[in-house]
Specification:
This protein has one domain: SCP2 sterol-binding domain (Nonspecific Lipid-transfer Protein, Chain A). Helices cover about 40% and strands about 30% of the residues. It contains six helices and seven strands. Helix 2 packs antiparallel against helix 6.
């Protein structure tokens, strides 16, 4: 079992995203980079990003040089979204996540973001 926000988590998520038919359909012909910043985790703050291009997805630890939007949250909110206990839209509307950058692109690809959350919630992770 991979630990949430670890390199093993990123590898498992990348594999699951690229193997999921609904996510593959949602990411077809999309070029998107999302930077995630999670504060207050058991191991401190964590940065990771989702890069979608050329029909494939990659989730990586670290900072993405050129991203379309950023998503900031505390560890509690990030883990609740990851476990499927908190809806992304509800998290945004209640201020549990803050989105910066190209909001139009985020809104345009909301279906893809929902699929990302759905696939993530199926991962076997330790929190």
């Amino acid at each position: 079992m991979a630990k949430f926000l670890s390199s093993e988590h990123m590898e498992a998520a990348t594999e699951a995203l690229n193997a999921d038919a609904a996510f593959q359909e949602a990411m077809a012909s999309i070029d998107l980079g999302l930077q995630f910043n999670v504060t207050g985790g058991p191991d401190g703050d964590s940065d990771y990003y989702l890069k979608i291009s050329d029909g494939s997805a990659a989730l990586e630890l670290g900072e993405m040089g050129d991203f379309d939007a950023s998503v900031a949250s505390d560890y509690e909110s990030a883990s609740a979204i990851s476990q499927g206990e908190l809806n992304v839209q509800m998290a945004f509307m209640t201020g549990k996540i803050k989105v910066g950058g190209n909001m139009a692109k985020v809104m345009m690809h909301q279906g893809l973001i929902n699929e990302f959350a759905r696939v993530s919630s199926g991962l076997d992770l330790e929190y």
